[in-house]
Amino acid sequence: MVAEHGAALDRLCAGYEREDARAEELRQEVWLGLWRALPGFRGEASLRTWMYRVAHNVASSHVRRRMRDLSTPEEQPGEDLVPDSDRGPERQLSDAQRRARLREAIAGLRATDRQLILLYLEDLPQDEIAQITGMTRANVSTRIGRIKERLVRITQEPRR
């Protein structure tokens, strides 16, 4: 499980928590949640879908608990969502700035929208995202489309 899905779950945790220490704390919570839930895995969904569902539930609880405990807004994701370009330094700087702007935009989304787009960015099929989130496939499709439009709009706005 760790070898096959660990990197994706690390990215999911980084999407919920910007600060490395908090992302690591969430990562540990997710793996503990998976360990505890493993005896209940019935194989009704793929292992990957089941793992994302457990991770989603743990991360959602983590965010709700943190929001209750802190009066500060949620942090931004801290890891790059898109790999570095192999182009020259100017292009790399431009790409890094666009990635930072995208991370900021994703961090500003509501938790459910952030979760949907993070799962989408992991290339999960919409049917699987629907299973993970408990939404219908049609709802997932519609919301992802709207989130993508919002992210394009936000990332193209001039900075204030």
Fold and architecture overview:
- The chain has 160 residues and is mainly α.
- It has a single domain (2-80, 87-156), classed as Up-down Bundle (Butyryl-CoA Dehydrogenase, subunit A, domain 3).
- 71% of the residues lie in helices and 0% in strands.
- The chain has 7 helices and no strands.
- It has helices at residues 2-16, 20-37, 47-69, 89-107, 111-121, 126-133, 137-156.
- Helix 1 (2-16) packs across helix 2, helix 3 crosses helix 6 and helix 6 (126-133) packs across helix 7 (137-156).
- The longest helix is centred in the middle third of the chain and has 23 residues, at 47-69.
- It is globular, with a radius of gyration of 16 Å.
- It starts with a helix and ends with a helix.
Number of strands: 0
User: What is the assigned CATH homologous superfamily?
Assistant: PhyR, sigma-like (SL) domain
Give the overall form: globular
Which structural class do you get from the secondary structure elements?
mainly alpha
Largest sheet: none
CATH architecture group name: Up-down Bundle
Number of domains: 1
**Assembly level:** single chain
Radius of gyration: 16 Å
The overall pLDDT, averaged over residues, is: 81
Please render the helix and strand layout as text.
Elements: H1 2-16, H2 20-37, H3 47-69, H4 89-107, H5 111-121, H6 126-133, H7 137-156
Helix pairs in contact: 1-2, 1-3, 1-5, 2-3, 3-6, 5-7, 6-7
